[in-house]
Amino acid sequence: MKRLLILLIIGVGLTSCGEYQKVLKEKEISPKYEMAKQLYEEGIETGKNKYFRKAIRLFDQILPQYKGKPAGETVSYMNANAHYLVGDYFLSGYLFERFTKSYPNSEKVEEAFYKSAKSYYEVSPVYSKDQEDTYKALNKLQFYINAYPDGEYFIAANEMIQELSRKIEKKFYEIAKQYHHTERYKAAIQSFDNFILKFPGSTFREQAFFYKFESAYILAINSVSYLVPERLAEALLYYQDFIKYYGDTEGELLIKVKSYAQDIEQRTNTQIEL
């Protein structure tokens, strides 16, 4: 009985595979549509990518023929969502975007806007790489939030915006920090200054103020003698900025800041409130 059952399952599988191959070669689009829809629904029900991938092959064949027809909206949505569900995010982002333009009155349009944005979110790279797709995701997510303030995906979209924004912040912060670590102190000062202005609420703000001051301090004490007084005075201004915002904190950064300030005091004979 067990052997018979196995043979039966194999037979059914071969028959199903043969039928699929036959429909792929069909000239009529109606059988392709029916099988693609069936495979798509099996994918939704089982969560198995193999059904979506088979459906996608059929959708690719019939999409042009359904353009402008009543079923075109359904085919376009299923095709975009099949790509989304198998993780083909580069294509699903584009397909959902095209869907929103082709069917702006569809009941699926909110979902399409969200999934287009989320597709770009999914392909957003680590902070150290080019962030073009991150910016695309941010723009699309922000558009969704503005268009659907009471939307089904509002909370999820807002969380993704916050996550992607932190990634952008980290990229700018690390660029400035790299200038500091490679002893390009003028560039570091400018970069940290830009960072502080661009991201006033950043979690890296304290470190940015610290490295801006440290860069100015190191630049000053290693300058030719006639530039030292002017640059130490500038560094002192950055010290005062740090103390203004983080003078009541405790930790290693404040200890270092005060030690640098003491050295500036000794070099300039300037009384500094530590």
UniProtKB/TrEMBL annotation:
NCBIfam families: OM_YfiO (TIGR03302). Residues 36-222 form the Outer membrane lipoprotein BamD-like domain. This is Beta-barrel assembly machine subunit BamD. The keyword Nucleotidyltransferase does not apply. Keywords: Cell outer membrane, Membrane, Signal. Pfam families: YfiO. InterPro entries: BamD, BamD-like, TPR-like_helical_dom_sf. Gene3D superfamilies: Tetratricopeptide repeat domain.
